[in-house]
Design a protein that fits this description.
Layout (H helix, E strand, L loop, with lengths): L1 H15 L87 H37 L11 H18 L2 E2 L3 H11 L4 H8 L1 H10 L1 E16 L2 E14 L5 E16 L2 E8 L4
Antiparallel strand pairs: 1-2, 2-3, 3-4, 4-5
Helix pairs in contact: 3-4
Length: 278
């Protein structure tokens, strides 16, 4: 009887106290074989708060390592999409962060802009050198001193005087040869004196026999060069050669030649005659 009461009291104490762990199991009763533990916990006495038996420990959550993200930029397709990622303009260097590595387009701009500025600087420098050299050449070139393009009054004066001189010295009348000689002494100087004699030598020789009358008229003239007291003119003239003998006959010819002129006082003289023949 006492043994049964003791057993009941023991069970009550076990019901009211927390179960022991597996390491510190309950001490076996003297003379009583411990019953095997069942899966069901004995119900607590009435009036006490029930506690929920903690379930089995949850399985540790498996963490999936995120796949590496392939950075793509504008115009660069995903490597899984098919095209070569190196074709994109914004290809970033491998191993660099997006903030540290500029896109290819920015790199091109950074490279191209200095190159363009350098090329423009070189070009402007070359233009400046060429302009300086050209200006220096113009200052030293004699053509810059050509007043034929700027001095209208001087150009008109030399044209009138030389046209008159050419008409006088290249006209000859067999009846008054002295007139031709006076014209030559009035309008010729320097090499032109001998050149004129050589050009009219045949006319002077044949004039008395054929009764020749040579008339020269300047139709047009142009001042090629005018610099102070020196000038060069291009002369266009018509010549008529008339034989007044028994059988009168007139021939016509056109002449073109250049003359170098010099000013002596208030008049212009012919200093050289260029017939463009060698």
């Amino acid at each position: 009887m006492s043994t049964s009461r003791h057993l009941v009291n023991r069970r009550r104490r076990l019901a009211t106290t927390p179960p022991r762990t597996a390491e510190n199991g309950p001490e076996p009763l003297a003379g009583v074989t411990a019953a095997p533990a069942t899966a069901t916990e004995p119900a607590p006495p009435a009036g006490r708060a029930t506690t929920t038996e903690p379930g089995p420990p949850a399985a540790p959550a498996t963490t999936t390592e995120p796949a590496p993200v392939t950075e793509t930029t504008e115009g660069e397709p995903d490597p899984d999409g098919g095209s070569d990622p190196g074709d994109g303009p914004g290809r970033r260097a491998e191993g660099g962060s997006p903030d540290d590595v500029p896109s290819r387009r920015d790199s091109r701009l950074r490279i191209t802009l200095p190159a363009v500025l350098c090329a423009l600087t070189v070009l402007l420098g070359a233009v400046a050198v060429w302009a300086f050299a050209s200006a220096s050449g113009l200052r030293d070139e004699p053509a810059r001193q050509n007043a034929a393009l700027t001095d209208i009054a001087g150009t008109s004066e030399v044209k009138g005087r030389i046209s008159e001189a050419v008409g006088a010295v290249f006209s000859y009348d067999y009846a008054s040869p002295a007139r031709s000689d006076r014209a030559a002494s009035t309008y010729l100087t320097g090499r032109a004196v001998q050149q004129h004699k050589d050009m009219l030598a045949d006319v002077r020789e044949q004039a008395p026999e054929q009764k020749l009358v040579l008339t020269t008229t300047v139709t047009e003239s142009g001042v090629e060069f005018l610099d102070g007291d020196r000038a060069r003119l291009l002369i266009f003239a018509d010549q008529s050669n008339t034989r007044t003998g028994k059988d009168e006959e007139t021939t016509y010819a056109a002449a073109m030649f250049a003359v170098d002129a010099v000013r002596r006082g208030d008049t212009w003289l012919i200093a050289a005659i260029d017939t463009f023949t060698r």
